[in-house]
Write a sequence for this structure.
């Protein structure tokens, strides 16, 4: 095996044959513009025929300095940027960001807000999984398996549009609550969607893929990660659970309604199971995602009928949260509160310190490490992106496989470049 | 802080009696159980302590959840400039610990922990790229987010939000030199 010169690794021509005499090693660029990468990623593959000898991954094509921006936006403004991180499930990012902020401010949000956030977090997990399993199918040639779940995602977009006015970039949460309350018939719509629209969509997806011979043969045994490697690489989410790692932040470090006694009246947390697989390959990850969607649907059904009454926002007394819109428009105190929050020489007064808050999102552990110097903007807003940490092991997973196996491995990891590069 | 993390801090103090760990919560909380505990480790002892935290069955920190850095240039009462921050997770015992390692200009250097956790690879490259901290012993320390040849470290506090004109400095390729 010849080694590729360092300059080729870094800049790389489109394809070239190693010049060492007698060598048949090809170097191929997969990406940055390739339909199966979905976003801008680049892999420099060294090939012996179709077998992969080594893989070098280049990322950073979508680096947009979100963490630097976070130091110049306040705790409510930055939620707009989090939408653009994992743009497949922006709601989950919103919730994770404000989960960390509320930890810093030491705010306990209201029970109504917790229930709404939990329902929305689960809906966004469902839609993320629908897309990622569908895309894995699409990349392997099963176009129908992409279109059917996409149809079902449409229903979730409609539900999001109804609560916050946006289908895609939602920016729904605020420090200590939500942008606005849900509409009166929203719970009924959620129930109808979960009971009537979602199950046939998941069944269709399963009928198209689970026993599809092409799909099974191209995913089984491909991209294997062992249990110990999964922990050592820092994998989280469906990737880790497909390798038998029993780790789900909803169970291990419960928050929102996953926690017992979430409403202060001794209610138990939502009842759900964490699916675990042992085979650690692409097919296992697909199965985990399907099982998680069904569990999420169960959780939503448990909560949607018992949304507690009350306010969605904590009281704005200690000047950490924005007052209700009605109060701003119709009372002088509300208007003053609002001005105290949003004027450029005023704003948040967080304690000096640091905090790490993390949520279990569809891709894994999404954490935010916040440092506050007491000013209105965070001093540092680090995002712990699941895509970046999960994607590191990619090169090790594909070495030894055929070039066509890169595609299912990439699909099963569900890499979102917006979050990967930030 | 919870009892489990307190036990780990006691264990560390027993094992490395010459290091001043200065355990403290990251931020004060009303609910003491929820406080997140952070210990300081000097860079020259980092690898030793990390190996102990990873290998010892009473700590069992099998996963490095996150690795990042904070530039404390204008931070009130800060003594050191860069704080490399490690978030450790024990999957089996279910607790977390934060480790901070402070380094200073010029030429900030921290030993790489890729030999303990493989998952430290890209986060260390990211910190190298955006903060300019060298991780000694890292197998492939290259820039990851910005391009090769970029000279600044954008997440440092003395780097302006709008950049330093790097965009204007791009070489214009004409048809003749292409």
């Amino acid at each position: 095996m010849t080694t590729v010169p360092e300059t080729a690794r870094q800049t790389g021509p489109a394809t070239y044959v190693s010049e060492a005499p007698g060598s048949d090693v090809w170097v191929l660029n997969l990406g940055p513009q390739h339909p199966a990468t979905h976003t801008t990623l680049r892999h420099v593959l060294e090939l012996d025929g179709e077998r992969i000898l080594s893989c070098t991954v280049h990322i950073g094509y979508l680096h947009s300095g979100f963490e630097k921006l976070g130091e110049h936006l306040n705790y409510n403004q930055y939620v707009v940027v989090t939408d653009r991180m994992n743009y497949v499930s922006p709601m989950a990012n919103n919730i994770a960001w404000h989960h960390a902020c509320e930890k810093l401010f030491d705010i306990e949000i209201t029970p109504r807000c917790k229930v709404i956030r939990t329902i929305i977090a689960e809906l966004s997990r469902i839609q993320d999984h629908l897309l990622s399993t569908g895309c894995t199918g699409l990349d392997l040639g099963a176009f129908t398996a992409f279109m059917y779940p996409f149809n079902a995602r449409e229903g979730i977009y409609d539900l999001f549009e109804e609560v916050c006015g946006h289908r895609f970039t939602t920016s729904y949460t605020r420090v200590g609550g939500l942008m606005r309350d849900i509409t009166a018939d929203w719970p009924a719509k959620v129930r109808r969607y979960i009971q009537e629209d979602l199950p046939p969509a998941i069944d269709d997806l399963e009928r198209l893929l689970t026993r599809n011979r092409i799909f099974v043969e191209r995913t089984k045994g491909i991209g294997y990660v062992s249990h110990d490697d999964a922990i050592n690489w820092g994998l989280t989410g469906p990737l880790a659970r497909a390798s038998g790692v029993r780790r789900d932040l909803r169970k291990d470090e419960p928050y929102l309604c996953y926690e017992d006694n979430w409403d202060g009246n001794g209610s138990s947390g939502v009842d759900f199971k964490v699916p675990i697989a042992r085979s650690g390959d692409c097919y296992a990850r697909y199965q985990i995602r399907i099982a998680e969607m069904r569990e999420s649907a169960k959780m939503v059904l448990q909560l949607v009928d018992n949304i507690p009454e009350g306010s969605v926002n904590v009281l704005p007394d200690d000047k950490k949260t924005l007052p209700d819109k009605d109060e701003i428009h119709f009372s002088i105190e509300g208007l003053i509160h609002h001005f105290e929050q949003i004027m450029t020489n005023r704003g948040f007064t967080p304690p000096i310190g640091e905090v790490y808050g993390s949520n279990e999102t569809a891709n894994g552990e999404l954490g935010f490490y916040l440092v506050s110097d007491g000013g209105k903007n965070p001093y540092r807003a680090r995002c712990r992106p699941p895509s970046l940490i999960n994607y590191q092991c990619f090169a090790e997973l594909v070495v030894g496989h055929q070039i066509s196996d890169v595609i299912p491995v990439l699909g099963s990891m569900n890499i979102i470049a917006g979050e990967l590069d930030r | 802080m919870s009892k489990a993390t307190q036990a780990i801090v006691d264990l560390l103090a027993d094992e490395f009696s010459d290091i001043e760990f200065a355990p403290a919560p990251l931020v004060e909380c009303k609910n003491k159980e929820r406080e997140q505990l952070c210990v300081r480790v000097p860079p020259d002892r980092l690898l030793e302590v990390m190996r102990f935290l990873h290998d010892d069955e009473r700590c069992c920190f099998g996963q490095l959840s996150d690795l990042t850095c904070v530039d404390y240039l204008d931070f009130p009462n800060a003594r050191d400039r860069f704080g490399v921050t490690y978030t450790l997770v024990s999957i089996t015992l279910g607790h977390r610990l934060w480790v901070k390692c402070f380094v200073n200009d010029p030429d900030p250097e921290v030993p790489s922990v890729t030999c303990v956790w493989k998952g430290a690879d890209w986060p260390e490259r990211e910190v190298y790229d955006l903060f300019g901290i060298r991780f000694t012993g890292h197998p492939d320390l290259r820039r990851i987010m910005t391009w090769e040849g970029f000279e600044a470290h954008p997440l440092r506090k003395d780097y302006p939000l709008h950049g330093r004109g790097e965009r204007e400095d791009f070489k214009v390729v004409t048809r003749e030199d292409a």
Notes: DSSP finds three helices and seven strands in chain B. Chain B has a mean pLDDT of 86.
